[in-house]
User: Fold this.
Amino acid sequence: MDKKKGLIKISTRDSSSAKYVEIRLKDNGRGIPKDEVRRIFEAGYTSKKFGWGLGLAITKRIVEEYHNGRILLESTQFGSGST
Assistant:
């Protein structure tokens, strides 16, 4: 099976009140199945054969606890990537 080339689009935007900056990442990966969406920020969760499943859990903790920010999954469609 041929794999399509991965694409990650990164965009930024200042808020109108200038109290935060929005950083948005969008990819064209396989997407996240609906039954797995609620778990993506859990430590130890991974959809891969290898890995620790710590990346998004650590990222969420840093963003929320050290920067008083938020990280969330805006949309995903299995087979069409995520934002």
